[in-house]
Amino acid sequence: MDTPNEIVYTVTADSTGGRAGTSSVPALGISHVMRMPKELGGPGDGPNPEALFAMGYGACFQGAMGLAAKELGIDTTDSVVRTTIGLGPEGDSFALTADIQVFIPGVELDRAQALVDRAHQLCPYSKATRGNVPVTVTAVAAL
């Protein structure tokens, strides 16, 4: 189990109304009215949990790439992380998938793949999903 030695940051979100409700982080002044995706019978014209998860995972993964880049001596300054979260039926409920594609300009694909593989080991979101959510991480030539 990947348990922190020490908690250095916490954030608390309040959610009401589920997928058609409101989620907020009062301490940061962030609030979103959630909109169910069209594919689930909603209007699809606003944020939903999967979209917010994709953004958070992608940003966290790029941070982990920075750590891996230092180890491997690769410049990731202009890199782009594209995170796709899938949601689909699983038994009586639903389950997630994650697909992360990474573009690092000027870096050969084999070196870029080594970097994203290492970032996948370092990223807290990757650690949290490991063994629970199928995640693929791939270096790509272009997005």
Structure characterization notes:
The strands form two sheets. Strands 1-2-3 form a three-stranded antiparallel β-sheet, with no helix packed on it. A three-stranded mixed β-sheet has the order 4-5-6. It is an alpha+beta fold and 143 residues long. It has three helices and six strands; from the N terminus they run βββαββααβ. β2 (22-25) and β3 (30-33) form a beta hairpin.
**What global shape is seen?**
globular
Main sheet attributes: strand count, strand direction, barrel closure: 3 strands, antiparallel
Strand percentage lies at 25-35%
Helices and strands: which structural class?
alpha+beta
The separation of the N and C termini measures: 34 Å
Task: Write the SSE topology.
Elements: E1 14-16, E2 22-25, E3 30-33, H1 49-72, E4 80-90, E5 93-103, H2 109-122, H3 124-129, E6 135-140
Parallel strand pairs: 5-6
Antiparallel strand pairs: 1-2, 2-3, 4-5
Helix pairs in contact: 1-2
Give a summary of the structure in a few sentences.
By secondary structure, the protein is of the alpha+beta class. It is built from three helices and six strands, in the order βββαββααβ.
Describe the structure using short key phrases:
143 residues, alpha+beta, three-stranded antiparallel sheet, three-stranded mixed sheet, 3 helices, 6 strands, 27% strand
